[in-house]
Amino acid sequence: MRWCDIDLEQGLLSISRQIRQYGSRIEIGKPKSEASNRVISLDSVTIALLRQYRENVAADVDPGSQDFMFTTRSGSLLTPQHLTHLFRALNDKSGLPPIRLHDLRHGAGSLSLAAGNDLKTGQTMLGHSSIVLTADTYVSVLPDLACRAAEATIHHVLATAKATGARLRGTTTIAPAAA
User: Fold this and answer.
1) Residue-range domain boundaries for the chain
2) By CB distance 3.0 to 4.6 Å, which of 35, 61, 143, 157 could disulfide with 129?
């Protein structure tokens, strides 16, 4: 991310480039698909953390700067290989089960769905060209989400039956659980 790619006032991040590493060669170019070029809405906590980061770490940087937001201590670009090694070291130190850096992307998709966001929102957030890719590859249904879906479905069925005056056999004393 470059400072010019983020609007902390509006809470928007523009994704328009990708860094690739081939051995020691670094290439900065367009993302691999048109859908990967996107604008992501940021939550208030992330915005606050980025503002704090800008004040503390990058106080001398102009917010409209073409400079990258996250660099090495010497100010050079963080390479994908460096980030992978750093993430692995932090993951090992945390004592958590090992995961790959890219697995955070899968987790973000799953958490978005668990938070009640629809698949189309997840597709846009992840930059997928197809909602099928989002549903089949990146978003795993969490057990509590499946339970909530079952409860929401029966609540809808019973509420519709009550509203239309229809009687469903065996439902006279059944009330849906509170959501």
Assistant:
1) 3-74, 141-179
2) 35
